[in-house]
Amino acid sequence: MYTVGRLAKRHELSRSTLLYYDRIGLLRPSGHAKGEYRQYSDEDDTRLTKICEYRRAGITLKAIGDMLDDQADTGVAATLENRLTELNREMDILREQQRFVIDLLGRTDLLNEQQVMDKATWVSLLRDAGFSENDMRHWHVQFEKSAPDRHADFLRRLHIPEGEISAIRAMAAAPQQIFNINRESGKFMEIFFKIYEGLDREGPGNFAMTKRAYDMCTGLPEKPEVLELGCGSGGATIPLAQISGGIVTATEIYHPFLEKMVERAKRAGVEDRIIAAVMDMGDIQAEPESFDLIWCEGAAYILGVDKAFAQWQQYLKPGGCLCISDAVWLSEDIRDNAPDELKNFWAEGYPAMRTAEENNRAGEAAGYTPLGNFTIDTACWDAFYNDVERRLEKIEQTYGTEPNGRAIIDMTHKEISLYRNYPGTYGYEFHIFKK
């Protein structure tokens, strides 16, 4: 028999991967010891070997499950043949991209892997070929989508630091995460993520606020299946696991955040009830009606609250709950009479920001029943912004003289000063809905 840790190590996988396979039914442990400790048999080990082989071939987890559960093996050959067809199509696309880039550059010698090329040279060549910032972003998105490992290798060959590579790939994996279309460079996103990497939380909130919202989620089972979208470094993940007693699938597109969340889960003793998954909140990899509760603190605006309402509903079980927190104007009257500098800042930073009442009406229009809402305590904002300011002092020393660094540092200082100069105008609202 194998423990989850031993089996994961044997196949060079993370524990979170096996926990995720268990949750989706792809690899269930044959037994449990001392309560909830998973035990895997030799048969489980053999099944995992096949899963790994099929994953290396690029087959989806859903298709792998169908293949392994097909007693007659009638679908295995067909699935493999379909994957071969897909690979041939992807290779054709990559060859076409290669020919296109070679034609644009007119310098085939620079594409030799032995040739030294850095990021500045590559960007300069693309600009000379007529690429705009938007064209470059689109190129990264397509490369990440068609060949993520090759995309990462290519960026490393340009001698780009790992932090910036993570930022570029995060942008490419979820392009809606970019807050301002004029700030889509990898360097801007690298600095943005660096600021938040050093924080206790990536937004206003605390244990008490998370618990208050969770307690308003009526009708949940004793140990619910929870999907957290945009978990960051685990500021809400750990409390959710502790409060709910269930399994929390925590998703994030930025790897360093996810790694920090896993470390925090270990220290808190809840790692066995948290599944870490790299996932775009706009492209959820799960079966319909998989979760009792979907949770998203301070990140639904990235996708768009209305779009989140529409897309996430299918993954909730009947009677399941959706809980989000979102920046809101505290009333329509306050919004209408807010100072121009405050209106202008949020018109650029979050043009879709509404009131709590408007969010509730949007949720009802999408088919949810509002269970309640409340404004997060201002003490959470004070603690968050104090933490941000401490982090900015360190970031200033490294990035303060760079154009992108200066822009994001100044933008963040502006946001903090507006919040302090105009208290009681906007806040973060927790919304709890039932499907």
What does this entry look like structurally?
- By secondary structure, the protein is an alpha/beta fold.
- Helices cover 55% and strands 15% of the residues.
- The chain has 20 helices and eleven strands.
- It has helices at 4-10, 15-23, 42-56, 61-68, 74-105, 119-128, 133-146, 148-157, 162-173, 186-197, 207-215, 237-244, 255-268, 300-303, 305-312, 332-336, 340-349, 356-365, 378-399, 403-421; strands at residues 2-3, 31-33, 37-40, 225-229, 247-252, 274-278, 291-297, 316-329, 354-355, 369-375, 426-434.
- Strands 4, 5, 6, 7, 8, 9, 10 and 11 form an eight-stranded mixed sheet that branches. Strands 1-3-2 form a three-stranded antiparallel sheet.
- α4 (61-68) packs antiparallel against α5 (74-105) and α11 (207-215) packs across α12.
- It is globular.
- The protein starts with a strand and ends with a strand.
- Residues 174-185 have low confidence and may be disordered.
